[in-house]
Design brief:
2 strands; 1% strand
């Protein structure tokens, strides 16, 4: 039988998947191989001139085909399926289930680059760089286009969870997060240069973002001192360097991409716990220490921008690319070290029931708050 033709091994894969309720054909398996998504079965040589044979069906082939069948629907771009497969491969296997194998690293890199080129962030960077050498009219157009693109995404940061919790407890309106319109200035600085934008505008952008926990006034003092030569100089080249999301992905090897995925999964968990404080989650020393660490690094706004608990493939690609940056890897490591020091996140002091008691306390609080809100609504005539 010619190499690449459907054979008994692929027929066995088809039967194995059919027993799980997954429908694939031998021709589909071969088409996936042709585009580099599915490995071939391991073969054993029969001796000089006698060819080779497949002794057993490779489990990696079976599980890879199953992953592709789950994610590669009719009419769906295969690169989206690869991103979903890569995300799934990073999740721990359920008890009794087989761990999903990793997709080919070249296919992952290709899918990430394709997805990133379609994001608003990348298109903004392309507009910004194009305006740098195109004259004053193009620079004015940059501000208009950047404002329109950013506005279409409704960039507003989330309020700090402690402020949300305090407002809910006081039955007050929820606080709004900061307006992030200053992003226009950051985009302009990347395309036109920081000197063209000015220290005051960049201070506003950094401050409204809450970058590193510094206020607008803090940034004005720091950047103004640097501009006057009275403080350490600012390497604005780093702004352009960190705005390049494609380069790090193009250079990343398989281990680096897997590590970025680990960082993203970990930060997603920590961010979820951080934000749940605003929704009456009971507090413990471990949870408080975790929030304090995130706040001391000034990373709450960054996590709010990059983390989505149910991301689209493009959002996933953008977040994964950000996690290739050492800053996020260092934050993840620091949070894991903090977790090792205070592992009982869900153990209320003095409560021997552990996580069960923690959840019961949380559910009781939520029921009490809902009842209080309903009673207040009935009192002021707003019920219904």
């Amino acid at each position: 039988m010619a190499r690449g033709a459907p054979g008994p091994a692929d027929q066995q894969v088809v039967r194995e998947l059919a027993s799980r309720g997954v429908v694939v054909t031998a021709s589909q398996l071969e088409s996936w191989r042709r585009v580099g998504l599915l490995p071939r079965h391991r073969r054993r040589g029969l001796g000089r001139g006698r060819g080779s044979v497949v002794d057993v069906v490779d489990p990696v082939v079976v599980e890879s085909a199953a992953a592709l069948a789950r994610h590669l629907r009719q009419g769906r771009d295969r690169r989206l399926a690869v991103l979903d497969w890569f995300a799934e491969a990073g999740m721990p296997a359920q008890p009794g289930a087989v761990q999903v194998p990793e997709p080919p690293v070249d296919a992952v890199r290709e899918a990430l680059l394709w997805a990133l080129r379609g994001t608003v962030s990348h298109r903004l960077m392309e507009v910004a760089r194009g305006a740098a050498s195109a004259g004053e009219e193009a620079q004015d157009a940059l501000y208009a286009v950047a404002g329109q693109m950013i506005g279409s995404r409704a960039y507003r940061g989330a309020a700090h969870p402690a402020l949300v919790r305090a407002a809910l407890l006081a039955d007050e309106d929820l606080p709004e997060g900061p307006e992030l319109g200053g992003m226009v200035h950051l985009v302009a600085a990347i395309g036109l240069g920081a000197q063209e934008v000015g220290a005051d505008a960049l201070a506003e952008a950094f401050g409204t973002w809450g970058m590193f926990g510094l206020s607008v006034e803090d940034w004005v003092r720091m950047l103004g001192a640097a501009e006057r030569g009275e403080g350490p100089p600012v390497d604005w080249g780093l702004l352009q360097q960190h705005a390049d999301v494609l380069g790090p992905v193009q250079r990343a090897g398989g281990e680096e991409l897997v590590h970025a995925r680990t960082v993203l999964l970990g930060l997603r968990m920590f961010y979820g716990l951080y934000m749940m404080h605003g929704l009456f989650m009971p507090d413990t020393p471990g949870l408080a220490a975790m929030r304090d660490l995130i706040d001391s690094w000034g990373m709450g706004p960054f996590l709010d921008h990059m983390i989505s608990l149910a991301p689209s493939p493009r959002q996933y690609a953008e977040s994964l690319a950000m996690c290739l940056e050492p800053l996020f890897g260092h934050l993840y490591e620091a949070l894991m070290e903090q977790l090792a020091q205070s592992p009982d996140l869900f153990h209320l002091p003095g409560d021997e029931t552990g996580a069960a008691g923690f959840m019961e306390t949380w559910m009781t609080t939520l029921r009490e708050q809902a009842a209080a809100a309903a009673a207040a609504g009935a009192t002021d005539g707003t019920e219904g």
